[in-house]
Amino acid sequence: KTALFDNLSEKLGGILDRLTGRGSLSEADVDAAMREVRRALLEADVSLDVVRSFTERVREQAVGATVVKSVTPGQMVVKIVHDELIATLGSDGQTIDLNAVPPVAIMMVGLQGSGKTTTTAKLARRLTQRDKRKVLMASLDVYRPAAMEQLAVLGRDLDIQTLPIVEGQKPAQIARRALEAGKLGGYDVVLLDTAGRTTLDEEMMSEAAEIKSTANPHEVLLVADSLTGQDAVNLARAFDERVGLTGIVLTRVDGDGRGGAALSMRAVTGKPIKLIGTGEKTDALEDFHPNRIAGRILG
Ligand code: GDP
Q1: What letter would DSSP give residue 202?
Q2: Which of 17, 112, 223, 233 is the most exposed place for a label (fewest CB within 10 A)?
Q3: Number of C-alpha atoms within 13 angstroms, CB side, residue 177?
Q4: DSSP state of 66
Q5: Which residue out of 109, 118, 248 has the highest number of ligand 1 atoms within 8 Å of its CB and is therefore the one to mutate?
């Protein structure tokens, strides 16, 4: 339990602990507690719809619940909230699924600036160094030569191959070329770093959908900034509906955001958060642990 988490415990304790000895939680008690829970979630930047459905689920479990002697009513509600957060955030041990005929294509999607290119390099590094896979990276960002160059530089630093840049090709053509090169070169994994834009738009979505139907990726990972807040829901929903996601990578978890985006995106898409980015360097990629984010969200 983190200090932040104890904070909500204290607040709920203040509201509920006068009930000690009464046996079960009434609707009025639970409603008072839910106001604090709602406030904590909104402060953590969880989207409004998700806050509503979440507190409703907690409320149903809490009303009428028998308070056992060993805990205070406040502690009991905190435990219900905590367990429901974990249940919503998903299970530990989510992994990148490489269980397919090689080269396994993994497509990275997301807004510009979300950390997509950095995350592509981080994932390539992990798959190469830890999992001993032969990885090819390809930038499909034909609009920003600097982005293509950025991936090439990261590849050189890490000693991981990037697909040679050929000017004038469309993203789907580059994807096809990457998979052919992957096959010919005996690669296990081909990472496709797609172009992002600064806002959700139709062009980005239709391009991503076209790349997906060409490359038939085994994983489609949404790279999303954990500081995104209320927009996280629209972002995740749009990508999932138009392109179809298999997982989410949350970046900038090292920042001072409270992680509400994790809960929002997971609740809306049902897709697992597979990895988190915790820094600018290419070794700053970690597995996702729901209990850590839960503590942070509870504030
Ligand atoms: P892209 O436009 O989505 O490809 O974004 P980039 O990969 O170029 O990343 C944008 C900026 O965010 C760069 O300065 C990265 O170093 C930084 N960045 C990416 N991931 C993380 C992260 O997990 N933590 C921190 N602190 N910075 C990150």
Answers
A1: H
A2: 17
A3: 16
A4: B
A5: 118
Residue 114 CA to ligand 1 center (angstroms) comes to 6
Query: Measured in angstroms, how far is the CA atom of residue 279 from the centroid of ligand 1?
Result: 8
Question: For 222-257, how does the pLDDT look when each residue is reduced to its tens digit (9 = 90+)?
Answer: 999 998 877 888 999 999 999 999 999 999 999 887
Q: Is 129 annotated for ligand binding?
A: no
Q: Name the 3-class secondary structure at 171.
A: helix
Whole-number Å distance, alpha carbon 277 to ligand 1 midpoint, is 9
pTM of the model: 0.92
Q: Is 125 in the pocket of ligand 1 (CB under 6 A)?
A: no
> What radius of gyration, in Å, describes the C-alpha atoms of the chain?
22
Q: Does residue 90 have a known ligand-binding role?
A: no
Paired tokens of 254: 């090292």
Does the pLDDT at position 20 exceed 60? Answer: no
276 vs 296: CA distance, rounded Å: 14
Quote the ipTM score. Answer: 0.99
User: What integer pLDDT is reported at residue 1 of this predicted model?
Assistant: 38
Q: How much of the chain, in percent, has pLDDT values that exceed 90?
A: 68
| Ligand 1 atom closest to residue 113's alpha carbon, by position in its atom list | 2
